[in-house]
Amino acid sequence: MLTLEQLKAIVPNTSSGRLALFVEPLNHAIEEFGIQKVPEWLANVAHESGGFVYLSELWGPTQAQARYDTRKDLGNTKPEAIEVAQRHGSTPGPFFRGHGLIQTTGYDNHCEARDKLGIDCVENPKLLTEPVNAARSAALFWKAHGCDELEDFEAMVRAVNGGLNGLAERLAYLERARSVLA
User: Which residues, in sequence order, are CB contacts of 123 under 8 Å at separation 6+?
Assistant: First the structure.
């Protein structure tokens, strides 16, 4: 079981009060989804969330919004995605932007999270910003993308991020996690 002291040692720049919100949800997600490579998972979720601080993707009304609105690979161009977003006074890009510890992004991924986690994060994506759902959605993503079966940490990072963004920080988190959890 991961403790607050261990999580603080892994993510030293985040306040203990903030990290305390995630200890129990992380432990439950690890157990529920059978996460085997816990240090690697923690390193990735710590980086993706800015040290458990950001649970929604950060960007404003920029060119990113227009790009995300037209992302067919995320399902954001589907009529139902457009309809849901419009009901909430938005467009699919910003409405289905990344939420949770591994930033569930796009209409299709929000639908998958809804169906597999039993929460309506399609109509209310902010549900994925609650610590329990943020941890569960990160564990769901990790398992669904076969990250526990990968041997190479860089391959895990690519599965989570699509590239190697933030690799140095992820490796620092990984080194601390392996040391603390040994």
Answer: 84, 88
Containing structural domain, residue 86: 63-126
Question: 71 pLDDT exceeds 80?
Answer: yes
- Could you give the dihedral angle defined by the CA atoms of residues 141, 145, 146 and 148, in that order, rounded to the nearest 10 degrees? -40
**Given this model, what pLDDT does residue 66 score?**
72
The per-residue pLDDT of the chain, averaged, comes to 95
Decide if 98 contacts 105 (C-beta within 8 A): yes
What is the rounded (10 degree) CA torsion for 125, 80, 102, 161? -150
- Residues 175 and 144 reside in one and the same domain: yes
The percent of residues in the chain predicted with pLDDT above 90, rounded, is: 92
Enumerate residues 6+ apart whose C-beta is below 8 A from 143: 33, 34, 35
Calculated CA dihedral for residues 109, 19, 160, 48, nearest 10 degrees: 90
Residue 3 CB partners (closer than 8 Å, separation 6+)? 23
pTM: 0.94
Whether residue 114 is found in the same domain as residue 139 = no
